[in-house]
Design a protein that fits this description.
alpha/beta, Ribosomal Protein S5, domain 2, Rossmann fold, five-stranded parallel sheet, 20 helices
């Protein structure tokens, strides 16, 4: 009997399924058959494995080779099965013992010279395997940083096929410098101290960070909208270990570590171009379903500049994840759910020429053009935005002021204080932020003062706000109360929250 067996993981979104790889070598016409619904990249593994074995002085059988990836009904994709197939083939030839590979998953792409290349999705694959009882994994050396985030799993890092064969035969592994497991904290590359003036927008950013509220900034070009939005992650709390794992897992699937360290605890910020497609924003794909910008911004900030210029329907596709904190993508290969709990920041010019706000000098837009331009932001989407802030042009006095503005670290301290108050209040509940309070709890346990409720009910009767808008105002009022150190929102808090939501001045 010439059968070798190894294990790997096939990902569907963030969920992984254990894959049993069986290789049978039998007499017959030499050939290579791959079973188990492989995609094009996986089907090409035959030639990569053959070349890698040859260049590592390992035998290739001149017989009929059958490779089965089970369960057979589950679609498999990617080149991450190469190393596992190669090891199973060597086991089937009795070139390697079977025992070292029991209860071990093997991940990695093979180059033609036998080197093991990095793959996408290592961290979610390891998490899924660990949850299914696997305690050891062989992975590419280039993926060691994200793999080390699972300290309870024995990780074997390899640079080549030769490293694996040496370990299996004589128990010897190459030695590498120890990886520093200290997870990096938020840096100070960007700072709110760089922003001149804009006290209203700075205050709105602080409120948004404190309670997780969505924000719309409307102002002329050059007023500082992008500067303010890009600095919001610097005032957000550092991610917890669990949150960092979730963020790293999503970025691992997308291959998004070019601009972000796998071990970073800073809240991510994702800023897709306004010409991005709906699939780029929410995720998708035909065979391989990947997360979109809203999932990459999980536990962080999704910033969309020039929001009215987005293609019709793109922004409205965010309505469901804004409510649920997840995005479910349905394709013929199955339903995939990605996390998508983000802080949405939109930036828009006030009119097509951008000069409507301020003194309005040089604005050539008619009132109809202004309405049509901002009308591209649909009512249902705007109903989910907590604050609408007018960003005025920076004045001469503000630009000439040489005194340092308030830094991100100072603002972050107030944000942390407000979040701590909210966390203590919600210690017996499954949510942590004011923006996550369910509607039922807002009407019962966490209702504001009676006078504040009467004010909101009057606005509801006048049809100036919707029921969703009423709840948004109440959540925002709780954040204002936390920043002011009050135990319960007052009428002033609710009125201020209402003004923020309607776009009045702070």
């Amino acid at each position: 009997m010439s059968i070798g067996m190894t294990h790997s993981v096939a990902l569907q979104g963030l969920a992984g399924n254990l894959i049993e790889i069986e290789v049978d070598i039998a007499d017959g016409i030499p050939g290579f058959t791959l079973l188990g619904l492989p995609d094009a990249a996986l089907s090409e593994s035959r030639d990569r494995v053959r070349a890698a074995l040859s260049n590592c002085q390992e035998p290739w059988p001149n017989k009929k080779v059958t490779v089965s990836l089970s369960p057979a009904w589950l679609p498999k994709s990617g080149s991450g099965f190469d190393l596992s197939i190669a090891i199973a083939l060597l086991i089937a030839q009795h070139s390697l013992p079977q025992e070292p590979f029991h209860d071990t998953i093997i991940l990695g792409e093979l180059s033609l010279d036998g080197k093991v290349r990095a793959i996408q999705g290592v961290l979610p694959a390891l998490i899924s395997a660990f949850q299914q009882g696997i305690r050891r994994a062989i992975i590419p050396f280039a993926n060691r940083a994200e793999a080390k985030l699972l300290p309870d799993m024995a990780i074997i890092e390899v640079c080549s096929l030769y490293d694996v064969t040496q370990w299996a035969r004589v128990g010897v592994l190459p030695t590498f410098a120890e990886l520093d497991l200290e997870i990096s904290l938020p840096g100070e590359e960007l700072d709110f101290a760089d922003v001149a003036g804009q006290s209203k927008a700075r205050r709105a950013a602080e409120i948004a960070a404190s309670g997780g509220h969505h924000l719309l900034l409307i102002g002329p070009p050059g007023a500082g909208k992008t500067m303010i939005a890009s600095r919001i992650p610097t005032i957000l709390p550092a991610l917890t270990t669990e949150e960092a794992l979730e963020v790293t897992a999503v970025h691992s699937i997308s291959g998004g570590f070019s601009s972000r360290s796998p071990m970073s605890r800073q809240a991510p910020i994702v800023a897709p171009h306004h010409t991005a497609s709906r699939v780029a924003i929410v995720g998708g794909g035909s065979y391989i379903i990947k997360p979109g910008a809203c999932s990459l911004a999980h536990h962080g900030v999704l910033f969309i500049d020039e929001a009215p210029e987005c293609t019709i329907g793109v922004l409205d596709s965010l309505r469901q994840p804004l409510e649920s904190g997840t995005i479910t993508i349905t394709r013929s290969v199955g339903n995939i759910t990605f996390p998508a709990r983000f802080l949405l920041v939109l930036a828009a010019n006030p009119c097509p020429c951008g000069k409507y706000i301020g003194k309005g000098r040089g604005c050539t837009c008619t009132s109809l053009q202004v309405r049509r331009y901002l009308g591209k932001l649909s009512g249902p989407l705007m109903d989910r935005i907590d604050m609408r802030v007018i960003v005025e042009p920076v004045s001469r006095v503000e630009m000439a002021d040489t005194a340092p503005a308030e830094s991100s670290s100072d603002i972050r301290r107030r944000v942390l204080t407000a979040r701590a108050a909210a966390a203590e209040r919600f210690s017996q509940f499954p949510w942590q932020l004011n923006s996550q309070i369910p509607a039922r709890e807002l009407r019962t346990t966490f209702s504001p003062e009676r006078a504040a409720l009467n004010f909101l009910h009057d606005e509801l009767d006048r049809e100036r706000i919707t029921a969703r808008g009423l709840h948004k105002v109440m959540r925002l009022a709780w954040t204002l109360a936390d920043l002011s150190g009050r135990a319960r929102p007052t009428l002033d808090d609710v009125q201020s929250a209402y003004a923020l939501r309607e776009g009045a001045e702070i």
